[in-house]
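All the exercises in this workshop are built on plain-text protein records. Sequence and backbone structure share a record, each on its own labelled line. The question running through the whole workshop is how a given chain folds. The record below serves as our worked example for the rest of this section.
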Amino acid sequence: MATAKFLAAKKTKTHGEFFFEIGCEEIPAWMIPKAVQELKVLLEKYFAAAGLLDGATVQVFGGPRRLAASIDAVRLHQQDTEKEITGPVKAVAFDAAGAATKAAQGFAAKQGVPVEQLYIRSTPRGEYVAAKQVTPGRAALEVLREILPRVMQEISWPKNMRWTSGAGAPHAAAAGPAPAETDATRAAGAAVPRFIRPVRWIVALLDGRVIPFNFADVRSGNKTNGHRFLGREGILVSGAGNYRSRLKSNFVLVDPAERLARITAHLQKLMEKGGLCIHPDAGLLDLVTHLNEFPSAILGNFDPGFLDLPREILITVMRDHQKYFAVEKKGGSLAPHFVAIINLDRDRAGKIQHGHERVLRARFADARFFWDADLKCRLADNLEKLKQVVYESKLGTYFAKVQRMRGISAWLVKHAAASCSTSTVDRAAELAKCDLVSGMVREFPELQGIVGGLYARAQGELEEVADAVYDHYRPLSLDEEIPRNLTGCVVALADKLDALAGCFAVGRIPSGSSDPFALRRAATGIVKIVLERRLTLSLHHAIHAAFRALHEQNAAFKISPALEKQLRDFILDRARFAFQQRHAFAYDEINATFAAGADDLLDAADRLAALRAIRRTPDFEPLAVAFKRIRNIIEKAGPAETGNVEQFDPAMLTEDAEKALYAAAQEVARHAAEHKESRRYRQALENISSLRPAVDRFFDKVMVMAEDPAIRKNRLTLLAGLLKEFSTIADFSEIVTEKST
């Protein structure tokens, strides 16, 4: 009866609100933003495929104990779909008297329509009998009870828990990509639900009505739960509107933006009291926003005596181990305070503050112990200890890696950084990994490199060496700064080149999302350092130097030109990404520039900038179209028709237009060569663009594919010479123009 009433109501009401919430045990904070976006994508995909979305927007929210989504207006019933089915030809379906034959009757029966509803459809192949097949739309309630368990199942996580039917509690499943789906695995997946944490409740509503389904022995309903400690369970909700308000009254802020605003306001209020400020940390701010459902900030204190430890150590302990914000004085120096974000409305008796202070005191005491103990040993004395630390099973120890880095660094100084002191660079490379066996790095691995630089400085190493050791892991992303001095850049390049060459040599090449040695990051770091330090470096020779260092250390490694090319292409792929994402170059500009060569990334960057600068000039696009035409003509003619450039004979030019083009090309080539020699690529491209009138006139007046084979070949050779000569900065034929789209 209830279903009948609902189906009757949908005839007058076409759209209703959809609301969905997955309640579970605490999800790791760093996983939540990605999961929320996946939930949005999956809902959009399945609702659109089912014809229920109608262009509406999917809103999603996430917190440690819940993922939620709402859509203001979705269809309450699918529209009927109509499909035309063609059957036998008219002559077979009807006899001479126009009566339906058995063929027509069989076709009508198969389509489920009376013979009288068949009609004739004219096609290029003749006249055929056709029928309209109408598939009635289904109630959205029925469709969604099938879609929503699938959506929950398909949210990808680094690690899942799976439920075996009747087994009770879930168990952890190994991380990694899911195997390819088959009918069998789909069926198995339906019986073995998986999710990041145990699911505790599900809210699924359409126009206020429960969408009934079951996932991991949890049945959907219309009740949610508030804060684990401050709120109630079994809170009745009818949709997105009262969901937010009822959860807020139960100490849950559903929207991450609202939680962020609350945290920011609390931080500002705490800092106003003492004239202090929070150490900027966008990453930590995002983390605590997703770590808490009702965040509040509390100010804690620590012994000022700990401030004699380096600030990097103090901040790392507070941030990475305790999720605390460091507090600074107005001048930027650290203050003996910290701010913790708690998942409560307040710390009424101050017990939580004292607990955090006690924990931090112990962590700082550990850091002081390691700092004092490590300084008793010279950093350079740790080098021998690296013989006991495995870098990679086939590549050997970190001691071996350091020796390769020293060799690559020496090559880089000679070929790309001549202003560096060879001895200074070698000392920095020698010390770069020595902190890996220190007590501080064993306890706080986030400090590797940084603490090595601090120890080097404290033990009297050159400032340039200490800074280079400190910075040599940089940059970790396109947004991070490169090492502050050239010595650091050289050591960083050597470290990254060795990692790439070594991993490629032993087959540890990234595939898909798997990249355990962070090789994409290493390649991106090489690109960023070269571009920002404006280093003239041949990728081909640098890669060869890295592979040679590997081979000289272990002759068992057989290095081939194909492997070197594979690594070069890998780095160039990251360069493409950097140029497009960081520098906003268009993909066809990158293609055009790289087609002319990209072994020297700095040179490629300069050519790219010049290409973008002249792209919108009046002559450029028509010339690009002409060059595309030239390439097509040459490719269509084939190598047999096109002679070598050296075989071109100016004396065979007969038409005024081709003589004029040849003369103009000679003049432009001379000026362009002078500009290219001085890397004035914009001026060179402007010179090349001035060829446009001569090229246009050539194509208007000259028949390239002349009947005389000798003349035809000479003209094709002229065009091939033009293409070769003027594609050394950028291949114009790679540019996407309005006429070619």
The chain has a mean pLDDT of 90. The chain is about 50% helix and 15% strand. The CA atoms of residues 625 and 739 lie 7 Å apart. The longest helix spans residues 351-375.
